[in-house]
């Protein structure tokens, strides 16, 4: 379930701006929609929409009403609350708060009122405060396994029209581009060996993947992040595609603020 399919989100950009004041962080530079409207804090926009979808997925996967309430607290005629997984500067959890639409349609019956702390919502009569979405099914998936090799999907990395644009021009036009990429991949393994936090987790299509920095033109700043998925059966990682730094941070921030030297907003 997508957030905009669940609720009417009038002035969403303004509400996200207000949320960013509750939890100050670098949420990305302002972008513009295809209609020319500003999107402030684009990383936070993406974060809220994806966390809601994961929360609703968890909600639908349990049948016990008490368990459901601990994930998404819905009181049909009063309110709906979900845990954003964010904290204010006093480390109070922040929740999204929905109220019924006065004249609900067949498609929408909730209105996103805003984002509030537990104290503020208790004044409004909320009695159960849901837990945040669970991305941590297997903690081993969050740490790179050095017994596994990495097998890049070069057919996609250099063959896909969108992906190859993310490769620095000097590398993508080189006859030695595979050798250069393999060298950067070997270096990345050494960086991970020196600091396990170098491999940063992201959540995609119900799975935990790892983001690995690829330094092709500069030893101090990575050019790309290689997305790898663990193949337990064959004991290797499959390197599907490469992301820009903005894309990598956007994806990683869904789980937590990346604690790495190379991935920053």
Share of residues in strands: 25-35%
Largest sheet: 5 strands, mixed
Helix content: 25-40%
By helix and strand content, what is the structural category? Answer: alpha+beta
Distance between the termini: 27 Å
Using the CA coordinates, give the radius of gyration. 21 Å
Whole-number mean pLDDT: 93
Identify the strand order in the major beta sheet: 1-7-6-5-4
* Number of H/I helices: 10
Question: Structurally, how many domains make up the residues?
Answer: 2
Shape verdict: elongated
* Low-confidence segments: none
H/E series: HEHEEHHEEEEHEHHHHEEEEH
Please tally the β strands and state the result.
Answer: 12
Fold and architecture overview:
- The protein has 265 residues and is an alpha+beta fold.
- The chain has 2 domains: 3-123, no CATH class; 139-252.
- The chain is built from 10 helices and 12 strands.
- The strands form 3 sheets. The chain has a 5-stranded mixed sheet with strand order 1-7-6-5-4. Strands 8-12-11-10-9 form a 5-stranded mixed sheet.
- The relative contact order is 0.12.
- The mean pLDDT is 93.
């Amino acid at each position: 379930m997508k957030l905009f399919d669940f609720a009417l989100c009038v002035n969403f950009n303004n509400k996200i701006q207000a949320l960013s004041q509750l939890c100050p962080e670098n949420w990305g530079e302002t972008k513009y929609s295809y209609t020319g409207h500003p999107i402030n804090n684009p990383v936070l926009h993406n974060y809220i929409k994806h966390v809601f979808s994961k929360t609703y997925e968890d909600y639908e996967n349990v049948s016990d009403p008490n368990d459901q309430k601990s994930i998404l607290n819905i009181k049909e005629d009063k309110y709906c609350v979900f845990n954003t997984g964010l904290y204010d500067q006093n480390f109070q959890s922040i929740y999204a708060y929905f109220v019924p639409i006065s004249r609900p349609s067949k498609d929408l019956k909730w209105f996103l009122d805003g984002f509030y702390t537990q104290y503020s919502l208790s004044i409004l009569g909320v009695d159960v405060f849901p837990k945040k979405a669970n991305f941590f099914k297997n903690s081993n998936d969050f740490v790179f396994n050095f017994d596994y090799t990495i097998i890049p999907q070069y057919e996609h990395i250099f063959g896909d029209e969108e992906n190859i644009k993310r490769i620095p021009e000097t590398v993508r036009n080189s006859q030695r581009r595979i050798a250069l990429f393999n060298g950067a991949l070997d270096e990345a393994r050494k960086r991970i060996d020196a600091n396990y936090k170098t491999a940063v987790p992201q959540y995609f299509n119900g799975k935990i993947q790892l983001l690995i920095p690829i330094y092709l033109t500069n030893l101090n700043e990575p050019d790309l992040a290689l997305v790898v998925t663990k193949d337990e059966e064959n004991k290797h990682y499959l390197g599907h595609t490469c992301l820009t730094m903005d894309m990598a941070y956007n994806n990683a921030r869904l789980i937590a603020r990346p604690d790495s030297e190379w991935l920053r907003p």
